[in-house]
Structures are given as structure tokens and as C-alpha cells.
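Entry details:
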Amino acid sequence: MASTNPERFEWIASVHPYRADAIEELERCKQGGARAVKWLPPAMGIDPSSKLCVPFFDAMQRLDIPLLSHAGEEQAVPGAEDHPAANPLHLRHPLERGVRVIAAHCATLGESADLDKGGKASVPNFELFSRLMAERRYEKLLYGDLSAITQANRLEWLGPLLAKREWAGRLLNGSDYPLPGILPLFSLDRMVSDAFIDKAIVPPLRSLRESNALLFDFVLKRNMRVGGNRLPDSAFETREFFTRSPNV
């Protein structure tokens, strides 16, 4: 579909790093125009800390193809149900190999073992992701994806996320489609009561949602505020991240 409609579609591959021909498949996908690789470790049975991933990470770095990996608790897709695999701290492994990494949802759900401190204590995943974002060596490698951050079960971390003004340029908008079209997952009334949006914007948002879930998601995020904090304009200007020339 992407090759026959290049003016409308670009695509992301999903290549499992354990398969025998993983690197060959990655190269084929890159040549075919794939902009990134998407992983859902808890469902796919991928342990990013496994040595099996190292050659794949090195190939990703060589091809300059970023990794979009789910981070934080997974509730939508069962599969392998290996929830510890989505610990944000596991993203150190591709980062240390020089891979550009996008942490899906900015890890705004659940808790994981603090692997930096022996793994005995559980820490909110958003805090673990924030720790990685604060490390200067990852400034040009680690990014956060904004899909699903407005869902009702993630609103606890929406305020702290909007307050991270130092993350401007490192946040990338995504929709998590088709979830914006599933009514029970969102509560505009709660977002009003929590002062994330103005009450006046609710009727047009509800009207948008009936006709275009993607536009609903976009307009909702553009209208969110916490005090003087909002998502930076750069978060909605993602093309350059995915289309830059290799090794830039």
C-alpha cells in the first residue's frame, strides 16, 4: 500500500530480533522504505536485554533506523504477557549501541523493577523513563511517544509530562489508532475537572470524535494545558525525525 500510494502512506516494520534472518529482513524493510521498527516486547516475547538483540541493534544503528518500543505496562495485547520486558530501563541496551529509541506512551502506565538499584523496589515507569531522559548521553538518542497519554488510565502522569519543558524537541506525536475511537478509554469530563482542557472545547471535541478519531486526538492534545505548560509545537512536527539522511 505504501509503495503504490507514497504520497499518502509511510510505514513502520515489525521485525523480531530472534529470527534467524532478522538482519536480512531489517535490511529488506529499510530498502523498501520502512521508517522505523516497532516492538511490543510483552506481547512478542522480546527481552531487549538479551544478547540475541545485540547484532540487531548494531544493524539498526548502521542503517540509522529507529526503534519504537512499548514502554510500561501493557494492557491491550496479551501475547507472551512478559510484562517485565517493557521496563523502560531495558531501553538502555539499544541506546548503548547507538540506536535512536522512541519509548511508546512515555511509559505512562504501571510500575517496574528499578534495575539500576538492584531491582528490589518497584518504581512508576514514567519515573524510570524520566531518569533515562535526564541522562545527557541519551539526549540525541531517546525520545518519547505521545500516543495514549490522554487515556483515562494515564491521566495521573499527564501533568508531570506537560511540565517537562526541557523535553521540547524530544517528544513525538502518535495516535495509538484505533484506540482514540474507543469511547470508554477517554473521559473529557474528567479532563475538564482536572483542568487539562477548557469546558468550552468539549462539544467540538465530541463532534470530531464521531467523524474522525485521528483529528479528535490531534485537537485534544493541542488544546491541553496545565498552568502555562502545553505540548511544544515541535511534538507535532515529526517528519524530520523519520526522514533524515542516514548518519546525520
